[in-house]
Amino acid sequence: MRIHKFPLSLLFLLPTCAQAQVGEVRNEFAVGFNGGYVLNQVSLQQPSVPMLWKPGMTLGITARYTCEKYFSMLCALQAEINYTQMGWKEEIEYVPKDGSAPDTYERNINYVQLPLLARLAFGKEQRGVMGYLILGPQVGFYLNDSDKRTGKWDEETLSQRPNHVVAQYDLPVHNKFDYGITAGLGIEFNTSIGHFLAEGRYYFALSDVFKNGKGEAFGRSSNSTIVAKVSYLFDVKK
């Protein structure tokens, strides 16, 4: 069954920094920059379209508020504003009989994304290495899109598409608001000049890119994203 409503219950996973503390109080604030490499697919289903992972990049700013240390676990809230290149790359296996180059198709869809994350870290707090887990909701706002096609793109090649599905090529982005869940693992190096982070994330969208009502081209069209990124943060308040 398709999920239409944003899972507000996820917000309860975030640390309740404003409430009474039960561990060692922290009041630390750090900001900085992040960037990385993105692999994205749009899950076109009902009918299905074979996909490859489309590469892209992400760039943005990060703000982190650390509020408490509970036993050996350091609890923080992290917010970001990121520009991210998403979309999909289609897997087209048909090769024209005349020996010409096969068709290829790539759709670029660009978003501004705002993840709000709970962060739980373990390790050396001041100088040294920490490992951490992040989890929370993420929303995205559509900016623009474009496509890239190579090959013949004639009646012969189009007729050989899997399930004879070609509606996706000229379908405009309908839902300009993207939302879902993101989670990841990372490692942080704490030094005298700041914090250096490397992490991997996975984003699963609960929204659709295109219309998915009765009589529409697809029943589902959600983003799935793998992200590898690095960040640099410096302390504003410690």
Instruction: Work out the strand percent.
Output: over 45%
- Given helix and strand content, the structural type is mainly beta
Q: Main β-sheet: number of strands, strand sense, barrel status?
A: 8 strands, antiparallel, barrel
Fraction in helix? under 10%
Q: Which strands sit side by side, in order, in the main sheet?
A: 1-3-4-5-6-7-8-9
Categorize the overall geometry.
Answer: elongated
| Model regions low in confidence, pLDDT < 50 over at least 5 residues | 1-15
* Average pLDDT rating: 87
Order of helices and strands: EEEEEEHEEE
Q: Span between N and C termini?
A: 47 Å
DSSP helix count? 1
Query: Could you tell me the number of beta strands?
Result: 9
Round the Cα radius of gyration to an integer and report it.
Answer: 21 Å
Which tags fit this structure?
238 residues; mainly beta; eight-stranded antiparallel barrel; 1 helix; disordered N terminus
Task: Walk me through what this model shows.
It is a single chain. Mean pLDDT is 87; it is low at 1-15. The protein is built from 1 helix and 9 strands, in the order E-E-E-E-E-E-H-E-E-E. It is mainly β. Strand 3 (54-70) and strand 4 (73-90) form a beta hairpin. Helices cover 2% and strands 62% of the residues.
Concise summary:
With 238 residues, the chain is an all-beta fold. The chain has 1 helix and 9 strands, in the order ββββββαβββ.
Strand and helix layout:
Elements: E1 24-45, E2 51-52, E3 54-70, E4 73-90, E5 104-123, E6 128-150, H1 155-158, E7 177-191, E8 194-205, E9 220-237
Antiparallel strand pairs: 1-3, 1-9, 2-4, 3-4, 4-5, 5-6, 6-7, 7-8, 8-9
